[in-house]
Design a protein that fits this description.
Blueprint lengths: L1 H18 L3 E6 L5 E6 L5 E4 L3 E8 L3 E10 L7 E5 L5 E5 L9 E9 L5 E11 L6 E10 L1 H8 L2
Parallel strand pairs: 4-10
Antiparallel strand pairs: 1-2, 2-3, 3-5, 5-8, 6-9, 7-8, 9-10
């Protein structure tokens, strides 16, 4: 009976560990900045300082660059497998080597506003070994054109 009980207990503990193996947590602070923490308790942990960058107003044709900083707070290296954008106007550059536990790094996002106007919200999906779901980084702001500036001046 002791063997069966300990076997069932081991099975239950294994299920608990399996189901809680990965979690994604997002918290909002008072200034609307977010902290995204992607964690596998015994594996890599990817903590982004701020996953959203508001670039404000820029003129059409300008290129916006921003470094999204993160730390590996896990126990094993973080591997960035891919950084993918839905359109060609936004790209992400990142360190190809593993990010060791306790080490910080950046993903540099670049958005080319050529041919764009008005409010824009561009995203990068970051695929890592920390979670099966991608982490989304966002650049947002407004693109002004010569016509937009003239219209605003005439009002």
């Amino acid at each position: 009976m002791k063997i069966i009980t300990s076997g069932i207990l081991s099975l239950l503990m294994g299920l608990v560990l399996f189901t809680s193996c990965k979690q994604i947590e997002a918290q909002k602070s008072g200034n609307s900045a977010q902290v995204i923490q992607v964690t596998a308790p015994t594996g890599p942990s990817l903590d982004f300082e701020t996953p959203i960058f508001e670039f404000g107003k820029i003129s059409q044709g300008e290129v916006v660059k921003h470094d999204f900083t993160f730390v590996n707070n896990g126990k094993v290296p973080v591997l960035i497998n891919q950084v993918k954008a839905p359109c060609g106007c936004t790209v992400g550059d990142y360190k190809k080597e593993p990010i060791l536990p306790g080490e910080s790094s950046v993903i540099t996002a670049s958005f080319n506003s050529k041919g764009k106007s008005g409010k824009q919200r561009k995203t990068l999906n970051v695929f890592t070994n920390a979670t099966e779901e991608p982490v989304t980084l966002t650049l947002s702001g407004e693109i002004t054109t010569v016509e937009t500036k003239q219209t605003a001046g005439n009002q």
